[in-house]
Amino acid sequence: MNIVLVGMPGAGKSTIGVLLAKRVAFDFIDSDLNIQNKTGESLQETMDRDGYLRLREVEEEVLSELNVKNSVISTGGSAVYGAKAMKHLKKDGIVIFIRASLDELKNRVSNYENRGIARRPDQTFQELFDERELLYNKYADLIVDSIKGQQDSMIEEIIKALRARGLKLEHAI
Ligand SMILES: Nc1ncnc2c1ncn2[C@@H]1O[C@H](COP(=O)(O)OP(=O)(O)O)[C@@H](O)[C@H]1O
Ligand SMILES: O=C(O)C1=C[C@@H](OP(=O)(O)O)[C@@H](O)[C@H](O)C1
Ligand SMILES: [Mg+2]
């Protein structure tokens, strides 16, 4: 069984993911790095040359090809646009929506224009937030609020919720 983190850019998926993996003695995958490995370039370079839809396409390929167990998978914020990938991840994974407020995200993502977010060029942060909120909720098995400076207690909350769902986590400390 895997633990899959979804949510907006800046929500804390990568930060929480690696800490959580260490806590529960799972492997850790940040799918953004897998994408860069596959393309041999940065996410921004892929998007600059081929557009944001191409980045979403590669992301879906990478996620659909994952064949892992006992792993925490921190996805990129646009992963939920890939229905096939999400179906694949949900087959053997619990999906956790790391939910941050729009205001908190705005503080954390200061460089919205050039941070490599896979979005329509005319789309505002608010519009993107609203569009994606629906998708994160649709795929989430669990929702955990991303509280400023509270990474440790978020991890406690996740472990508690996973155990309540029957996940063994026998090596968790
Ligand atoms: N709970 C939190 N409180 C304060 N800052 C956080 C929290 N979680 C993440 N951050 C910060 O927000 C930024 C984005 O985090 P990151 O893990 O890269 O998010 P994501 O992978 O969801 O885009 C980083 O600078 C990180 O240190
Ligand atoms: O939300 C997005 O469109 C994206 C988020 C990024 O990952 P993080 O969510 O980890 O920042 C990365 O996958 C890519 O730049 C696109
Ligand atoms: Mg990330």
From TrEMBL:
The gene coding this protein: aroK
Cofactor note: Binds 1 Mg(2+) ion per subunit.
Names of the cofactor(s): Mg(2+)
Binding site for Mg(2+): S14
Subcellular localization(s) per the UniProt record: Cytoplasm
Pfam families (alphabetical): SKI
Principal place of residence: cytoplasm
Binding residues for ATP: G10, A11, G12, K13, S14, T15, R120
Binding site for substrate: D32, R56, G77, R132
Keywords: Amino-acid biosynthesis, Aromatic amino acid biosynthesis, ATP-binding, Cytoplasm, Kinase, Magnesium, Metal-binding, Nucleotide-binding, Transferase
GO annotations of cellular component type: cytosol
Family under the similarity heading: Belongs to the shikimate kinase family.
Membrane spanning stretches: none
Complexes and interactors: Monomer.
Keyword Heme among UniProt keywords: no
Name of protein: Shikimate kinase
Enzyme Commission number(s) of this protein: 2.7.1.71
Gene Ontology terms describing biological process: amino acid biosynthetic process; aromatic amino acid family biosynthetic process; chorismate biosynthetic process
Known catalytic reactions: shikimate + ATP = 3-phosphoshikimate + ADP + H(+)
Gene3D superfamilies reported for this sequence: P-loop containing nucleotide triphosphate hydrolases (3.40.50.300)
InterPro entries for this protein: P-loop_NTPase, Shikimate/glucono_kinase, Shikimate_kinase/TSH1
Single Gene Ontology MF annotation: magnesium ion binding
Pathways involved: Metabolic intermediate biosynthesis; chorismate biosynthesis; chorismate from D-erythrose 4-phosphate and phosphoenolpyruvate: step 5/7
Species for this entry: Thiospirochaeta perfilievii
